[in-house]
Amino acid sequence: MFSKSCEYGIRAMIHIAQQQETTGRVSLKDIAREIDSPEAFTGKILQTLTREGLLNSLKGPTGGFELAREAGKINLAEIVLAVDGDNLFNGCALGLSTCDSEKPCPAHEKFAIVRDELTLMLRTSILDEMAMGLKNGVSFLTR
Amino acid sequence: MFSKSCEYGIRAMIHIAQQQETTGRVSLKDIAREIDSPEAFTGKILQTLTREGLLNSLKGPTGGFELAREAGKINLAEIVLAVDGDNLFNGCALGLSTCDSEKPCPAHEKFAIVRDELTLMLRTSILDEMAMGLKNGVSFLTR
DNA sequence: TCTATTTCAGACAAAAATGTCCGCTATTAT
DNA sequence: ATAATAGCGGACATTTTTGTCTGAAATAGA
Ligand code: FES
Ligand code: FES
């Protein structure tokens, strides 16, 4: 469904959202440890998220990453778009060059509905809600 | 969403379903041409589908591939499972080792719903219906 | 039987995704 | 100022996915 990069990116963003309420900025080392991901690789992904305007980064001691906007105004669709691009939202299920309802593939009719539901689900998955779940111990970022 | 292999596999199965009503078995060469896919690579995928019991194959002149069951009794979920495995149906959105509603990731609650809708959509996408769409010119396998 | 055709199996190759390393730059604290 | 810290950028390495090639095995038809 999502690339490894995207999975790490989402987990990182949720962890940052949950952490920064209390401790402010979060370091790469802390993030990689908490979401159980390879540190250097995660660093690359966080750079991407920073370039894409979802994170701010600060160098030096006490440096680290923080959300570019408040956690209530960032949703999963933005993160997926930033890391994996828009193919999941627009692409054809059967890999045709474009998804076009005027000249659809045989799966289009049923697939487009589910794809749109997925898009909506991602748009309505807000970072602060997910961070809340983490904090309350009802959800987890490792296993 | 799906791997290239899976996309080619689905397109091949739909083409075979549409073609074999009239001309019987379908050769790899014909399939690769009609679904616009690399021939040798497509051959590998058809071998997999044959091993997995979704296709029968026959060597020699007049040989080729045919559906192992009638097109009304094969759905997309089976093809996806045969080629890409069950991760799409069971896997965690955020890449945790397993998806477990007892110890869910922060995306689980909303994601599991959409994932189940996708599964249902694939299960109810039947090969003969899609082949019909192709024959009637309302859907297409290339672009 | 002989030949042409077609799938099968395995080795090989190229490209993309995933992951690591290292030196550089910016920043903080002493 | 200087040293220590943390992100940045680019090169490099590994693994997976995607794709190719070749020869063998099976089969139909002449
Ligand atoms: S054309 Fe294939 S999903 Fe729209
Ligand atoms: S635990 Fe992540 S989707 Fe179920």
Could you give a quick summary of the protein structure above?
Chain A is mainly alpha-helical and 143 residues long. Chain A has helices at residues 4-23, 28-35, 39-51, 76-84, 87-90, 108-123, 127-135; strands at residues 55-58, 64-67.
Helix vs. strand class of chain A: mainly alpha
Q: Spell out which ligands are present.
A: FE2/S2 (inorganic) cluster
CATH class term of chain A: Mainly Alpha
Shape of chain A: elongated
> In the CATH hierarchy, what is the superfamily of chain A?
Winged helix-like DNA-binding domain superfamily/Winged helix DNA-binding domain
Main interface by residue count? A-B, 44 and 44 residues
Helix content of chain A: 55-70%
Q: Would you tell me which CATH topology of chain A applies? A: Arc Repressor Mutant, subunit A
According to DSSP, the number of beta strands of chain A is 2
Termini distance of chain A? Answer: 19 Å
The radius of gyration computed from the alpha-carbon positions of chain A, rounded to a whole number of angstroms, is 17 Å
Poorly predicted runs of chain A: none
